[in-house]
Amino acid sequence: MAADFEAAVEDGLRLSKRIYFGKDRAVAPPKPHTAMERAAGCSYLPNSPMLYAVISDPAVVDNPDMPSYQPHVHGRCDPPALIPLQLNGVLLEVDCYLHTAFVTLTGTWRVHCVMGSRSCDCRIAVPMGEQGSILGVEVEVPRKSYGTEFISVDNDKASENVRKTEDGGFLKAHIFTLTVPQASVDGGTNISVKMKWSQNLLYHDGQFTLRIPFSFPEYVTPAAKKISKREKIELNVNTGPETEILCKTTSHPLKERRRQAGKLGFLYDSEVLSWSSNDFIFSYTVSTSHTFGSVLLNPPLVGDVDRRDMFYCYLYPGKKESGKVFRKEVVFIVDISGSMSGQPLEDTKSALFSGLAKLGPKDLFNVIAFNDETCMFSSTLEPATVENIENANKWVNSNFVASGGTNILLPLNQAIKMLFDNSDSIPIIFLITDGAVEDDKNICGTVRNQLTNYKNISPRIYTLGIGKFCNHYFLRLLAMTSHGHHDAASDVESIESRLEGLFARASSIFLADIAFQNFDVLDDLEVFPSQIPDLSSESPFVVSGRYRGTFPKTLKVNGRLGDMSGFTLDLNVEEAKEIPIAKMAAKHQIELLTAQAWFSKNQELEKKIAKMSELNTVVSEYTNMVLLETQRGKANADTKKIITFSQHKYGLQSSRKGDAHQKEEPKPKVISTMHNIGLGYGSLSATGENIPSGYGDPDELEGAEVFAKSGCGCCGRCWRHCCCMCCIQVCSRMNDQCGIVFTQLISALACLGCYSCCSACCGGEEG
Q: Where does the secretion signal sit in this chain (predicted)?
């Protein structure tokens, strides 16, 4: 999808040459990237929130204020071209609470490239920062307004009036897109869009860094010089009670307008000649020499199905304690199945070399490569000496050859047994895979039973899932069971950076076996995650949950430091008056609960997750994202159409709010759906076919597998040995004559019954 998007934008920039801007020679249409710029890594993927005109008919491209009367263009754009719209004003509002940022960007764009008598669809693109999660989009046009919501749906309410579309979803893990229908957007229209998302702040060496995509390309600056261009940024930072904030760097000239204990407020407001060409970056530290934290309490939100109170516990790493990191015993388990061939395996190797190089001389390590079988660097753990690491690098280069299938249980068992006898170290397993396995639930149960037998510190399993074909919820449950951590590299390009971050987090653990001493006074307690994670100098510690009863005034925390000495800390408990802990914890809790729901197949838990998704506007596997269209200035001003964007197994429950005086029930809504915007549960068929990550969607490949299995006899066997994605790519490049012949051949085989005709050559096997 990302490559198709870039090609569409490039076509749109070429079409922009048709737009006439008068006799001002200083105004020139945007130019596509040269071959040298593309080789240097220049991309048309958005680095800031953007709007695009979706152009199927190139004849409509013109200046709505100054027609050029160019010759008619015959033909259509298939797929449609995307012309970036000009930006007239932008406001960025950011609220940072602890390690989470809530971002709202409001901008006004103009459809400057479509003649006034015609209309077009508009595509919205929302790039987000670290671990970004889309919360909602609101659109205002002259006659209508639009807004997104998350809606849970029932199985028996699936609408028959579904019109499927692919005009939305995630281009990449951090870029969300949405399409505004053609009937609403005429040439020359001003479109006001409000985009909301949440993201995490990066944390390294005691410093928080906020980075928001805010780099606009030159061609979105309005051509008219007299148009006012106002750029405004409002930033609020709240690091919790009893903290002192020290500002470090900022990318834009912010003016401080408020300073209180643990709180800062900044403003940037300026008339500009051109829009920001840099991401918005702001970094700060929370001054402390010792590990400290707090516990925040809140009552349940209005409309929350769970009526228990909420708590949110956080710890900031202190410089004094974080210097005492654990000695490590590390086993790297790397998937070398056929689907890992090419860039995924090469990037994994690069990150593995980097991780090995950072091991200390007292650490022990081993490397296990697996596909259908396993291959170990050594039969035992080896000291992380320079010589052993060099030998391991040579072994990896010679043995990491992508081939075969995916068997995760065998290498996991080998690693757990290898780490069984440890006394003064922390055992860590890194599991890196891009595939799904049939026995995933059995693996979770087996690992859970094995970890309960450890007398000392049990192994921590850190998992990285690559692409959408692996089951991320299975990997998350493995990590959650073992006090570990899960991360996802949804794009092949992010494998190396995500792996290095995972290695850094695990390598800097200085407080393990954390426990809360006086939780036993609470009733009906639920903690997320259920196994308390370790505290690393590369990441703040966060635990949230629900409870009934009276929370103690002080929460006692115990743990074990890297030198195996004990650690005790008393955390103050306070009401979270200005910090929305429910919103902050919602995404993490939904991910953990979804992993539990996948494992247990608990439908009540699935419905609870759907309600949480609706209430907190967070993506989940059990809700649809819907676009609500509201008419303005007419008798049916309150009538709303629902356009569904991700179909869930429960179906769609259609509802409509109308005017109190409206007599007739509204007609069935027009619904358009796109693929599920959640991570999904992977694809066994794609894993079995060894399809590389990033090629196709799991749902589409499951459909292709059904089609392949529907073939009979030798044709069915041929389909099973054929890569679905390769077949699709070949078919898309056929000329008309070849396509006709291919269609006639398939039809003839279907009519004659290929199994009967070919039973001799196929050995007479049953189909």
A: none
